[in-house]
Design brief:
164 residues; mainly beta; six-stranded antiparallel beta sheet; 1 helix; globular
Length: 164
Amino acid sequence: MIVAQMTRWQLVFDSINGTDLSVAKGAPRRWFAPTSTASTASKRHLTADLLPSFGVKGARSRFGVLDFNVSSAVDDSGTSAVVTLNLRCDGSMRLEGQPEPERVFARLRDPDADTTRRMVAATAGGVAVEFDEDREVLGPVPLAMDGSVLELRAEFQALSSSSK
């Protein structure tokens, strides 16, 4: 039982104060590894037919039932990476009297610990959001409780030799 609860906290964590929700907070970096080879459509955007690296379906939280999946791509040169998390929350299943989360955070990690890439941009539903490049955390991000899917995206770029 303890191992199952700890695994849940790695992936879906609602704060003790009942106002914050964190997704993939404790997921190990190796889980973010790409599952297919990326192709570069342009110098600015990585594209690929990606299979999810990992995900969760039907996780119960005080805010409702959550589903998410994470996929990633690294360009052929290894200088750019993109990590995407598709998140859905059905708020109709939240605990009685529980309000919507005040803040939602997601940890999207560079899939390779041995690179000098840093998070340079983050979006939620295509709109720029705050991020902490050191902790590799996006948020707070808006989350609809109606079961619609929110795409969170983090872009990573290699540091130039003058920035190291």
